Amino acid sequence: MRYSLTLFLFFGISLIASAQKSTTDFQTWYDASVKLNLRKGWEVSSRYRIRFNENASNYRGSYLFLEGEKKLNKYFKILANYRLALVEGNNYHRFLIGTNAQFKVNDFTFFTRPMVQYQKQYFVNDESTLNDSDSYLRLRTGLKYKINKHWDTYAYAEPFLKIKQGESLFTSFWQNSLGLRYEYSKNKYATLYYIWQPEVNKKYPDTNQIVGISFEFEIKP
Fold first, then answer.
1. In the prediction, which pLDDT does 3 show?
2. Nearest Cα to 120, choosing from 96, 92, 82?
3. Per-residue confidence (pLDDT) for residue 10, from 0 to 100
4. CA dihedral for 48, 54, 55, 57, sign (positive or negative)
5. Residue 8 C-beta-side C-alpha neighbours within 13 Å
6. Is 13 exposed, middle or buried (0-12, 13-18, 19+ CB in 10 A)?
7. What are the distances in angstroms from CA 150 to CA 4, 8, 64, 146, 147?
8. Residue 69: its pLDDT value, please?
9. Is 148 within 8 Å of 107 (Cβ atoms)?
10. What are phi and psi of 196, to 5 degrees?
11. Keywords on this record (predicted)?
């Protein structure tokens, strides 16, 4: 009886310890962007975002995005993106390059956006991290639906495949999202979105649950 009780207590403590090693964090993101539509299919945009983590109680950092797009034809675009992240006194420089393909069927738009991501990390007062970097292949695929003149919605799934020299590609985590966008004035939009970010291929994977709101202003000279 004593052996059984000891085994039961050990098993219970092991379960609690395992659960504590995997965490789920609720975050909130707030951002605003300006997009400039130029001639011959060119678009340039800038976005500023702030994030709160630890169940939306802690200011995580600020993020500045710069992006350029070129429309090749009715179905394809090429794009490049730079992001500067200022997180807890440290700087993260991220670069993206890729393409976006889409086609419409009535009010539905199917899209896929393969991209290569490279991120360079700089930590304050730590010269040993000057060469720290990560690279990913991102494969976003999704669907948009035009509800009416002012409302549309979207959903996508996006695995992040880690690129590591001498190793095969493997999925590090997913970013999956649902969003609802409203055009409240001509070329002015507000989007409410949800993102689910589960890690994979880890013994104790963490998960982020994110709710965000975004405001977008489009300028067409």
1. 46
2. 92
3. 43
4. negative
5. 5
6. exposed
7. 64, 58, 28, 9, 8
8. 97
9. no
10. -115, 120
11. Signal
Residue whose structure tokens are 């979207």: 154
Which residue is listed with tokens 């013994």? 203
Q: How far apart are CA 111 and CA 139, in angstroms?
A: 11
User: Could you tell me how far CA 141 lies from the centroid of its own chain?
Assistant: 13
pLDDT at res. 211:
98
pLDDT at 9: 46
What does 89-152 look like in DSSP terms, one character per residue?
TEEEEEEEEEEEEEEEETTEEEEEEEEEEEEEEE-TT-GGGTT-EEEEEEEEEEEEEE-SSSEE
pLDDT at 14: 44
First-to-last C-alpha distance (Å) of the chain: 81
Residues 6+ apart with CB under 8 A from 114: 98, 99, 137, 138, 139, 140
What pLDDT score does 164 carry?
87
pTM: 0.86
Q: Which amino acid is at 80?
A: A
Q: Are 77 and 92 in contact (CB under 8 A)?
A: no
Q: Walk along the chain (221 residues) in steps of 10 and give the mean pLDDT of each run.
A: 46 46 92 95 97 96 97 95 92 96 96 96 62 89 96 97 88 96 97 97 92 96 78
